[in-house]
Structures are given as C-alpha cells and as structure tokens.
Amino acid sequence: MGENGAGKSTLLRILSGDYQPDQGWLTLAGHRLTFASPRQARQSGIRVIYQEAEIIPGVDVAENIYAGELPRRGPFIDRGRLDAQVREAIKEYGFGTVLPAHADGDKLSPAQRQLVEILRALKSGVKVLALDEPTSSLTDEQVESLFVLMRRLRSEGVAIVYVSHRMREMLQIADRIAVLRDGRLVAVRPVKETSEGEIVRLMVGRDLTEVLERTPSASSRVVLRVRDLNSDWHRGISFEIKAGEVLGFAGLVGAGRTELAKVVFGDYRRNSGTIEVDGRVVDIRHPSQAIAAGIGLAPEDRKGDGLVLIRSVQENVALAILRRLSRLRFIRAALERRVVREYVDRLRIRTPSMGQQVAKLSGGNQQKVVLARWLAAHPKVLILDEPTRGIDVGAKAEIYRLINELANEGIGIMLISSELPEILGLADRVLVMQKGRITGELSAAEATEEKVLELAMLDQLTVESETA
Amino acid sequence: MSVNGPESREVKAGGTARRPEIPGAVRHVFSRVDTESLSLIIALAILVIAIASQTDKFFLPRNLLNIGQNVSVLGLVAVGETIVILAGALDISVGSIAGVASVTAAIALQHTSLAGGGVAAGLMVGLAFGVANGLVVTVLRVNPVIATLATFAAFRGIAFLLAPGGKPVGVSNEGFINIGVGRIFDTDTFPGIPVSLLLLIGVAAAVEVMLRYTDFGRSIYAMGGNPAAARLAGISLNRMRIAIYGSSGALAGLAGIVVTARVTAGEPASGTQGLELQAITAVLLGGAALTGGKGSVIATMLAVLLVGTLTDGMNLLGIQTFYQDVAQGLLLITAVAIGQYRAARAERARTRTG
Q1: Exposed/middle/buried for A44, CB within 10 Å: 0-12, 13-18, 19+?
Q2: What's the ipTM?
Q3: Closest chain B residue to the Cα of A6, Cα to Cα
C-alpha cells in the first residue's frame, strides 16, 4: 500500500521488466535476475497485471488468452483445439458462468478483461503474480470471486503481489502488508499484527484524525443565489450560499449535481431562472462570464476538463487570470511568476519546477494545480466537484484543510461529493439532489448518512405527488 | 536564426536544474526540446552537403538568394499555419487564399497605382477569407479539415473568376515589385538581402513573440492542448477560432502579395498552388503536435528552410516536377511519422512517473 506517487506502480514496472533499476536486483527462488525486457520477466514466471487490462478488441476471449501462441493446423488456426484448451482452462478455475470463450474482446467488462489476463498468466506457468489495483472497476461480487481465485492460486504456490488503495480488501486478502512512502519501503507488517490506523499512519507519516474538523464561518451575506433554475437536467432548483459557508451537494451518481455546477458556471445551457452573485443578477452564458462575476469551478473530470496536461504548471495556474496579469495584452512575466509561485507554495504543490508538464505530476498535485488556478482568480464562489476523487490520503487531508481555510476567508463553497463522510465532515449545510431536483436540506447538526441516503433515494413518485 | 531559442533554454534550466536525482529526465528534456530543432539542422546540413556534392551551382550567391526569396512565400503561409495547428485545427485553404490575394492586389494596383493600395487590398482579402473560414468552423460547426478543404476549392475558383479571363493580371508599380525582388545592402561583391526574406523574418519574430508573451498566444496553446479546459478557464473558443483563421488568412494574403510582386503579375494559381501541403509539412516537420498545444514558429522556420532547400536542390539537379511532388508527399508522411514516434516516446516517459 501507499499513497499515489509513493512508487507502487513504478515498482511493479521494474518487476515486470518494463523499467530497469538503477541499483539492486531481484532474486527469484534464490536466483538473481535481471530483465532487459518484459518478455524476459514473463519467461521467468513473473507476471504483472495492470489496471487497464490489455485486450485485443475484435478478437474473442479464446484467441486473447492464447494470443501469440495459437494452436495451428497449417496456415490456419486450429479452432477446435483452441476451444477445447480454453474451455478447460476456464472451467478449471471456475469461471464457466462468467467468461464465455467466444465473447468479443472489446465487449468484455473490466472484470472479464482481468480474468483473461490472469488466465493468460496461468497458462504460461506463473510463479509471481502482481496485480495493480485489480478491484478498482469491479463490483463487490466480482471482488469476492477474484479473492476466491487468489486464495486458490496461493494454495497452489503462486506468490501474489497485490497493490490496492482499499484498506478493507487488504486486511481481508493479504498475509503481509508492505507500505511505501516517497519511493521507500516504510514497513512490512503481518496483517494479524497490524491495524487500519497503523497502516494509514505509515502511509501518510502522520495521524489522520482531526482532518475533517470544520470550524463553521458562514456570515449572513449571500454570495450566490440561484432561483427557479431549469435546464435540460434540472427543474426548479433554488438555493443560496453565504460568504464563508460550505454548502454540500449530496446525491447518487446521475442526480444532476455535476450538471448543476456546469449550468451555474455557464458551460451548459440554462433554460430559465436567475443567478445572483453578491446580490447582483448576472446573465451567465459562458464560463468567461461566470469567472468575471467571481465564480470558479474545479471540475469533476480533472484531466478532461480541468488541465492542459501537455503545458506547464505555470501556464495552467495562470490560465484563468491571463488578462489580469497582462498589460497591453503582454503577460508581465515577473508578476506571473510571483503570483504562480505564491499559490504553488500555499497549496504545497510538489513539482520540480514551474515549467514542469502537468501530465507528469501525481493526481493529488494535479488537483492542487486546478485549485491554485481558481484561488489565484480570487473567487467569491468556488464550485468544487468531487475535489478528492482519485487522489491519495495525504493530499485529501490537505484539500480538506484548504476547503476549511477558504471558507473561513469568506469564500462561499459549493461542494459536490459522492463520499458522504466528506460532505458530512465539511459542509455547514447539505442539499440532497435526486433526478435533477433538490429533495431536501439538512443542517450540519441533523445530517447523517441515513438521512442523506433516504433523501437521495426517495421514491420519485412521492416527490411528484408532493409538488403536484 | 538562433537554434537555441529562448524556449529551449528556459525549459532546460527549469527541467534539469532541480532534479538531479533522475538522470533520465535530463535526457528526456533534451530529447523533447533540443533534438527537434537539432535534428532539423542536421538534416539541413546533410541535405546541403548532398546537393552541393552533385552541383557547384548551389553555393552561388544567386542560388542562395533564390532560396531566400522562395522560402519567404512558403514561410509566411507556414507562420499562419503554425498558429492554426497550435490551436488544434488545420487550414487547407491557405494556398487558395494567397491566390485570391495575389489577383486582388494586382487589380487594386491597376486601379489605384499606389503600392500601399495593392498591399492593403491583398491583406484585407486574406483577412476576410480567413475570417470566413473561421465562421464556417464556428457558426456552421463544420469540422476544420472539411471546412477548409471546401474553401480550398472554392477560393481557388474565386481567384480565377476575379482575374479577367482567368489570366494573370500585370503589375508595373516599381515600389510594389520591390517587395518581391528588392534587395538591400547589395554591393559589387554581395548581392544583398531580399526584402521578402526580411519581411518573413520580421513577421515570424512578431508572431513568435505574440505566441509566447501575450495572453492571446497563451490561450492558443491552451485551447490546442485541451479545448474543454480552456473554455472552462474562460477562453471563448469561437472568438479564438475566428481570430486564428483570420490571422492565417491575412498571412496567406501577405504571401500572395509577395508572389504578385515577384512575378509582376496577379496569379490566380501559379506560385501559390500546393502551398498548403508545403506549409503543413513544414509545421509538422518543425515538431508541432497535430493535436495542438505544442510547437513554435522558430521550429517551423527551420523546417521551411529545409523544405525550401530541398525544392531548390531538386530544381538544380533537374529533377522532374512529378518526382518533386512524390518527394513532397513522402516528406509530409515522414514528418507525421516522426511526430507520432515522439508522441509515443513522451507518452511512455509520462507513464513512467505516474
């Protein structure tokens, strides 16, 4: 285990022969090994399976498993023998019901793709099987069957390296847990002698308690007021955010929260309703107008909507305030550097330089770059859509602290999150959405997981009869 | 032109100084920034040696001047194409716009007999046609490749329609002609520097400065790198696209003016046909990403010099134009293939840290 950027994936890449170690070596069953290529690693029985399983689309399961070594008869594939071999393999490991041998490669679910990879590995006599976040795209049921398989392989003498963020799974499946931090092996603990708290402490290097402490700071001044907003996704949305308030938006996926953020920000169309910022009605039809009015949006899809990955940290941070940094349209270089430096320091963005390509930063640091951009724009309202999705525990803690700080400075924060503890811990008030409507409002004191979920999953019929 | 442009120095300083713990990064930064320009220079040197070994005409002052004059037309168009490609789009119509501008400038000269009148007419027409491209792309939402492929054909037709009888329109204004054939600093021993080459250098430098130091330039790189993110950062993509196609059109118009001045006639086709292919080749050969967000005018100019030298060499060696066309096509494929290879390598380097 370890935070994002701790070096887990890199370690697996070395294990797979993809990268070469600068120093040191691997030993397998007492033999010292050096791999010049992934192929050599595979031949010596080490197999690494990445998050994105490598599947050949347009080709069925059987051919995928035997890719590169299909049984042949003359110039043709010996379909009969192939099918027999594959069916036997699938049955042997108990996947008869979940993995049809003739399913097309690109129609497979992530779980099925992983099975194909694992079968590929087993077929070639694997001794060490490494799995990188194998359960991130699996359902609970699929996770359970993966664990059944892993236990079986373990009893057959296969060593398994299992990389995951999920503490519960780790404690359930592992014999020993190794914790990495900043590229170092911090500790190896037998599962029976450790606890969740200890592992987190080892990963982060400090205690995680107190992180979700919020000191309420809402004033009486309303910075954002939305009235009777209708859009292609929403009906009759009204709410207000006060200066210094964190307003949480809870709801199931598809409730329309991300869309609401984009409608308010002018990226999606608003059909009717008004938006007021700081008491003044603003007609927002484009993000530039939202920004001019004092709204910032850190979008849910960081890489797709937030960052220009191939450009530098500096350019990404300065992107929303180019005009302010310019005189006669020329960017004032010294001013830009100073402003960017200020926010990079404040957010403690870990980057070798301001000129570093954003693509090369870890997820947590990328998110901080997006936040730095909006802080530099001095917004009155900041919309944060899933601000901690896909980032590690340490960066999460920093972002929680930052949200608290920003609210205390008087910014109104619209916090959208699918992680209930996050909403419950940070929000001063919680709005629950369902199918494009607001179905309830809870104060921080009365908000509990049960109440939020109840409102989020409330039967749509009762809502309609109430409003009718 | 300096090889070690400010950008490469900047990136090197920022990229390597603070991370001595990863020696691979040094090599990586080098491979990304420097080798792109460096490999162009090496290719150019090899090409020059190859041509010069086959003919002693290459180093004649007259020939070198010819290269300078020839690349000025291509260069102006390529500067505009660089802007468009950096923004993640493409402009196939630049050669046709240059043709229209060439004819228009000549007609305006006949009517006003003022050099400035010809220049203004060529520029205005180029700008207007470029903006028309931008409107087709934004208002009608036609894909940039298709939009400018359509106007590529339509604008060429307009060029022929404007020229009476589809024939070249003669020009005799001395001042105007100097734009194409004039030299400065010429002495008995030194044939002088072509005015058109100086014009190109000035324009290229101005556009490079614009790209690097203005908010407009920054926005171009941002929208090329990720249009969704640029929009959410408050950049109006439609306005940008119109401005970008307008710039490209105006620069193509300027190229058309140089053609008219060089051949002392407004030419609807001759001298501007095939410019789009050469310009796109040069931009991509210069290392710009076809997907946008990466590249520079300086790199494009090096590539223009390479393309210009290659064309000149083939002319000197008496290679038939058909073979030259084949060579042009192969060069474009080579440029894109090299770009793909670099992108794949950068992608691998990226996953390395993730």
Answers
A1: middle
A2: 0.84
A3: B354
